[in-house]
Design a protein that fits this description.
- It is a single chain.
- The protein has 2 domains: 195 residues, Spore Coat Polysaccharide Biosynthesis Protein SpsA, Chain A, CATH 3.90.550; 98 residues.
- By secondary structure, the protein is an alpha+beta fold.
- The longest helix has 18 residues.
- The strands form 2 sheets. Strands 3, 4, 5, 6, 7, 8 and 9 form a 7-stranded mixed β-sheet that branches. A two-stranded parallel ribbon has the order 1-2.
- Helix content is 41%, strand content 15%.
- Helix 7 packs antiparallel against helix 8.
- It is globular and about 60 Å long.
C-alpha cells in the first residue's frame, strides 16, 4: 500500500526481494495516485523465479477512482486484498520495511503447522524518517502469545501480520482503524499468535497517516473504530468495547471540547449497536454517557476507575 513513499519505497522493496521461501510470493502493489517517483522506483524491480510483482492499474476516471472518491483512501486497502490470490496475505505499507529474510517463511510455516490459527504477527523495531532506530523493540512485556476473540481488541504492527486469505466483504465501509477492525473479525475465525521476534522496521515520520494527526483525532479515531467493531463482536464481549468508548470520550473531552461534542452526536446516532449489548451494560453506558457530558465530573480521578470496575473489568 503506497502513497508518496519515494524516500522509503526502496527499503520496502528490498525487504521483500530478499525473502527466502520455499513458496512463491505475489507482490500486489496498490498506489493511491502518488505524484512522486514511488511507482517508478517499484517498476525498476524485476520478477524472479519466486517473486512476481503485480502493480494494480489505476487511472483517474476509472472504476477504482470512482469508488476511491466515495470510500476514501481505505478503499486502496480493500482493493489490494481483493487482488491477492495467495493462500496467505502479508501486509506492508510503503514506508515500512522487513529486516528478516526468513520472515515470511517462519510465519507461513507456523500457520501451516497450526491450522487453528487465523493469523500471526511479530515484534518490530521503530525507526525515524532517516532509518535511525528510535526503539529496539516496539512491543514489550508481553504476558501471552496466543490471543482469542475475548482478548480483542489488541494492537499488532501491521507490517508484521500474516493471515489466511478470506472473503473480506465485511470490510465494505471505511473504518479509521481498519487494521483493528480486521483483526477483531479474524479473531472470530481462529486464534491469533504473537511470535516474539523482530522481523521489520515500523517507521514514524511527519507524513505518516496516523502519526501526523492530533491527539484529539487519535481518540476520535479509536472511538469510531470501536463503534464499528461492535457490529462483529460476540454479544458477551461487547461490554469491553462500550467501556473503552466511554474512556476515550473522557480523554477526548479533556483535549478537545468541540470534537467531543460532534463525537457525542455521532454516538447518539449509533445507539443501535450499543443497545445489542446486555441490558445491564447498555444502561450503565447510558448513565456514564450522560455523566461525561456534565461539567467537571469527567475530570475527577475516580471517573475512569469506575468505568473500569463497572464495565470493562
Amino acid at each position: 500500500m503506497t502513497y508518496m513513499h519515494e524516500p522509503f519505497i526502496k527499503q520496502a522493496m528490498d525487504g521483500i526481494m530478499m525473502q527466502k521461501t520455499d513458496f512463491k510470493i505475489e507482490v500486489v502493489v496498490g498506489d493511491d495516485f502518488s505524484t512522486d517517483r514511488t511507482l517508478e522506483i517499484i517498476k525498476s524491480y524485476k520478477n524472479t523465479e519466486s517473486i512476481d510483482i503485480k502493480i494494480l492499474k489505476r487511472e483517474k476516471g476509472d472504476e477504482y477512482w470512482r469508488k476511491r472518491q466515495k470510500l476514501g483512501r481505505f478503499y486502496n486497502f480493500t482493493n489490494i486484498l481483493e487482488n491477492c490470490t495467495g493462500k496467505y496475505i502479508a501486509l506492508l505499507d510503503g514506508d515500512d520495511y522487513w529486516t528478516d529474510p526468513l520472515k515470511l517463511q517462519k510465519q507461513v510455516d507456523f500457520l501451516e503447522e497450526n491450522p487453528g490459527y487465523e493469523m500471526c504477527f511479530t515484534n518490530t523495531q521503530v525507526v525515524n524518517n532517516l532509518g535511525i532506530i528510535k526503539k529496539d523493540k516496539l512491543i514489550n512485556n508481553v504476558s501471552k502469545t496466543t490471543y482469542l476473540h475475548k482478548d480483542m481488541p489488541i494492537w499488532s504492527p501491521t507490517l508484521t501480520r500474516v493471515f489466511k486469505n478470506r472473503d473480506f466483504n465485511i470490510l465494505d465501509k471505511p473504518v479509521p482503524g481498519m487494521d483493528t477492525f480486521m483483526m477483531v473479525y479474524q479473531s472470530t475465525l481462529g486464534k491469533i499468535r504473537y511470535i516474539d521476534e523482530i522481523t521489520g522496521s515500523y517507521r514514524v515520520h511527519n507524513n505518516g497517516v496516523f502519526s501526523m494527526i492530533s491527539q484529539a483525532k487519535k481518540y476520535e479515531h479509536k472511538i469510531k473504530t470501536r463503534l464499528a467493531c461492535l457490529q462483529i463482536v460476540e454479544v458477551k464481549f461487547k461490554k469491553k468495547y462500550v467501556g473503552q468508548i466511554l474512556k476515550d470520550l473522557v480523554e477526548l473531552r479533556i483535549v478537545d471540547e468541540k470534537l467531543f461534542k460532534s463525537t457525542v452526536i455521532r454516538i447518539s446516532e449509533q445507539f443501535g449497536e450499543i443497545r445489542k449489548a446486555p441490558k445491564s451494560i447498555y444502561y450503565l453506558f447510558l448513565m456514564y454517557f450522560f455523566l461525561i457530558q456534565l461539567p467537571y465530573l469527567y475530570k475527577l480521578p475516580f471517573f475512569n476507575k469506575t468505568i473500569n470496575k463497572m464495565i470493562i473489568y
